[in-house]
Protein 1
Amino acid sequence: MQISSVGNPLADRPDEWALYQPLVGKSMLELGNKKNTKAGLTYKDYFESVGYRHVSVDWNGEDGSLKRDLRQPLGLGTFDMVTNIGTTEHVDEQHSVWRNVCEAMRVGSVLLSTTPKPGNWFHHGWHHPHPEFYEKLAELNGLSIERLFTVGELKRKMVFCRAVRIEDRPFVMPEGLIHYNADATR
């Protein structure tokens, strides 16, 4: 799919847009209700405009998202793509939110995730997964990492991960690989 600056909230976010490529299937679960405030565009609106059945879930129920607590089972079925673009770091129950991620995936589903790198973003989000968290999540839960990299400025680095589910397995939470950010204000 060609990137377009018209109506695409990712047009000014090339690293994030690259993580989405190639797009897979026609259904997407978005954790949170991602919006490019500068452009005034939601990810939901964009992906629906290009033909995706897009479901976003967030505690606030804004911007077309379903009002859901990510610490509770979602029960929404499986999706071709599951996205976590800066959401899981705000959820205090990490085991439950990552269980929801894996349970929303079937063999062939793709996970796209961006989270703050530990030691960065000092006042943003409580839980910052180490890059090794994604490696262990993949190993334990039947995923294969396609891309895992860090992007950003010195104090605002993000971990980017794209993984595909290659085997259906019961969820197992990697232990000890998520840094708790006690300085977070939200």
Protein 2
Amino acid sequence: MTDTSKSDLDRAITEMYQVFGDGPLGRQLFGCDCCADSQTLDRWAQTPLRQLNAEELGSYLYSAMSTIGDEEDFKHFLPRLFELAVEDALSIEFEQLGTQLSRAGWIRWPDRQGSTVRAALEELWKTVAVMEYDDFALDSIVCGLALAGMDMPVLLTAWEKASTPASKTNLTRFVEHNRASLTEKRRLSNAFWDGSPAQEVRVADWLRNAMSAY
């Protein structure tokens, strides 16, 4: 990642902490016993956000807003979840974070909250043009952004038109990662697409056109 792109993404993450906070939750976190015991819930609620690691929050993310906590609790954990996800922490799947963002209805959040989330997602996307990722990371970023409800045709078209070496390399890797699945199964390879068939169709249609050039 170039210094410029990293600093822009870092600033976006810092802004998320400023908007949503970085201290402890400050209230009791409720959840069912089958997903987390009371000691775990208390640790998540009482620990300053930046001190929670990927393993802990990965466990929380899958149950967020269903069996553990509500939308307001999810907002609290979001900055750290996003930070860990973009650091490629294996316990935080960006696709799952995108799914939960959509479930929380972030697009309808108050202005500053929603704009801060959008800025962070857009800054992550910009790194695709300046930093080489492996094919699995690229697939995760594309799918996660789509599941979060971003306008993928616009983002993908901009990616295709970008002229940077990293952008072209990444696009080739993304195409090849999905080529066999799209050709043989007429589906994209990532299982998380089951959560948003409409977005999968949009990305798959774009990808079919791109495949002819790569």
Protein 3
Amino acid sequence: MGELKISEVHVGELTAWMFGTGAQPQIVVVEPAKIELKRHRRKYAACELGQGKSFYFRGSDGRLNPRAQNLKTSIQLAEGIDDETWLYHLRKADYSRWFRDSVKDNRVAEEITKIEQDIKASAEESRGRIIEIIGKHYTASA
């Protein structure tokens, strides 16, 4: 086997070299973890995210300011917030942005983005779908 070049290694791969065996370095494909870190997910569901990472349902005129400090609280507030405030944040893609930037969950953010982009979805429908996604990923029983 010829000399291995760094340019031959791509994202999702690594170079493994078994020292002392005389074998040449090999490129190995790394598989992403398939097991969810349930403890980590439960932390976001129930524990405080902090003021800087919390979601605030302010609405277009800023008259409201309830704080969702975790995902369980966000569901409770979402269920009780008026449709105008809900749609204001939905149309600005605030829900997916919160998951992407504060919760650090791009997968859930992408699922929510699809709902945010559905301009025909009512407040009730979009709210139900987003709550269902959060429940499926975070608050469902382990």
Protein 4
Amino acid sequence: MQGKTSGAKALDTRPIEPWPECRDWLGRIDEEVLGFRRDEHHAFLLGGFASRSVRIERAGRPAGYAYISAEGHIGPLAVVPGADPGAVLEAAVLCALRQQQARQVSMIVPGKADRILAAASGLGLRIDEPFVLLSAKPFGDWRHYLPSNPGFM
């Protein structure tokens, strides 16, 4: 099943190929965004844990990826640096609502992801449960990544 977002920044959503065919492009995005690969994480999610996984692309090139649960929880979601984070989020939300037919949508949005947070607010989402992550060392570009839950960070 494929979908398109609305507006001038139309993106395509396509199912992510089975593991390991998708390893290279997912790994490149994770390295760009997080500074490391998450191969085992993707293998686990694509092995049946995620209800839906989508490659979000523009003109055949990846703009990001998203995993969407049957209940409408989005995450992890990664946005390729240089892609429009708001458009990638909108594509994932529309996929959850239209293709997954979720009654509600949820996600964890880091405070550093200000453009994603603004887009989520513009789509009518609200902050339900704030939390704080502390780390002794910096890791990841949290402007471009939404974790599925704190345990997967």
